[in-house]
């Protein structure tokens, strides 16, 4: 029997596992809250009620209810309304039930009182009870056979709403103009930032697990064997491609020690000034210096680091940044890390 008292986040979590595989092999970082998938200030219809809606604030769900005279939350207009015209998940008809009660189609303990053929007033049973439309009364859960029909995530979110992919920082999902959940991929060198709902440079996004790049160990026709390759996400990280199965489907990830970067050419950990990092990677990673050379072609940019992370990007204008002197100088700098391609 379906237990309608479960929290909305539990409902949506099950949906995501079944429909998109969001949760497979992932780690939940925000106690399973539904809003961990959505950008700040995103508004959603509560999956467990047609009368409630959610505002996401810093990945935490803030619940609010519509008034009795406007009992439905419209996910597309993001307003409380008297009737819904295009939402089969929540739409009810009072034409045959004037003066009576009908079940809330998305909640076991919710119901609507049909004041007249066009006016439905919302109400709900106590938490330990379900509404029974046949008997027109609230009954204990143990006596209920209530089952709420399945829904998809785009039935609670406005069109073009973006949804986090917990398995891959490069990707996200979006509810299309037709209300269909569609997979999207950020441009090269970018990761999806859930709180802003945008793709940003990799160094600006905290990715809990480095995603496995496509064809990282080559293809069947041209496999990479017994070799270290960049993880394409960080300056220090690499994968080792073995030769037992080619191409290696599960290369082992590793990282150079602090103060060094992985150099694919020499197959070793080298001085950061000798290594050109993957696009969007953080050159402050694992370094103790406060100011380091950036990666932009021409060596005219530098970064301010704090605790091994970039906090600010600066420019020397027409001059060049000398990492040893920690100064912008007129003499051209030829670090390999920022040499012109």
From TrEMBL:
Which Gene Ontology MF annotations are present? chitin binding
Q: Matching PROSITE patterns, A to Z? A: CHIT_BIND_II
Keywords from the named record? Chitin-binding, Disulfide bond, Glycoprotein, Repeat, Signal
Name the Pfam families on file: CBM_14
SUPFAM superfamilies from the xrefs? Invertebrate chitin-binding proteins
Q: From the UniProt annotation, give the residues forming the signal peptide.
A: 1-25
Taking every annotated instance into account, which residue ranges of this chain make up the domain Chitin-binding type-2? Answer: 32-90, 91-148, 151-209, 214-279
Please indicate which superkingdom the organism of origin belongs to. Eukaryota
Q: InterPro entries from the xrefs?
A: Chitin-bd_dom (IPR002557), Chitin-bd_dom_sf (IPR036508), Chitin_bind-dev_reg (IPR051940)
Name of protein: (Mediterranean fruit fly) hypothetical protein
Question: Which organism is this entry from?
Answer: Ceratitis capitata
Gene transcribed to yield this protein: PE48
């Amino acid at each position: 029997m379906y237990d309608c008292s479960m929290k909305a986040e539990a409902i949506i979590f099950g949906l995501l596992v079944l429909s998109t595989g969001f949760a497979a092999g992932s780690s939940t970082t925000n106690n399973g809250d539904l809003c961990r998938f959505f950008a700040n200030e995103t508004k959603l219809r509560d999956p467990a009620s047609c009368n409630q809606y959610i505002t996401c604030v810093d990945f935490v769900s803030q619940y609010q209810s519509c008034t009795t005279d406007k009992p439905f939350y419209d996910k597309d207009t993001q307003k409380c309304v008297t009737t819904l015209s295009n939402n089969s998940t929540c739409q009810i008809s009072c034409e045959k039930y004037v003066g009576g009660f009908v079940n809330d189609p998305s909640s076991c303990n919710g119901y609507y009182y049909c004041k007249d053929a066009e006016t439905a007033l919302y109400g709900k049973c106590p938490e330990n009870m379900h509404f029974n439309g046949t008997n027109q009364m609230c009954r204990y859960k143990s006596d209920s056979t209530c089952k709420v029909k399945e829904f998809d995530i785009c039935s609670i979110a406005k069109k073009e709403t973006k949804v986090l992919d917990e398995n891959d920082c490069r990707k996200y999902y979006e509810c299309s103009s037709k209300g269909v959940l569609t997979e999207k991929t950020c441009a090269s060198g970018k990761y999806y930032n859930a709180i802003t709902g945008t793709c940003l440079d990799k160094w600006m996004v905290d990715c809990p697990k480095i995603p496995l790049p496509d064809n990282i160990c080559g293809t069947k026709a041209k496999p990479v064997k017994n070799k270290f390759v960049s993880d394409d996400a960080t300056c220090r990280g690499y994968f080792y491609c073995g030769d037992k199965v080619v191409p290696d489907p599960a290369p082992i990830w590793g990282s150079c020690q602090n103060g060094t970067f992985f150099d694919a050419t020499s197959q070793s950990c080298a001085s950061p000034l000798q290594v050109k990092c993957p696009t969007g990677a953080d050159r402050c990673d694992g370094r103790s210096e406060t100011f380091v050379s950036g990666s932009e072609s021409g060596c005219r940019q530098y970064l301010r680091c704090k605790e091994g992370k970039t906090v600010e990007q600066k420019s020397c204008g027409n001059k060049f940044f000398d990492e040893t002197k920690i100064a912008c100088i007129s003499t051209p700098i030829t670090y390999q890390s920022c040499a012109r391609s």
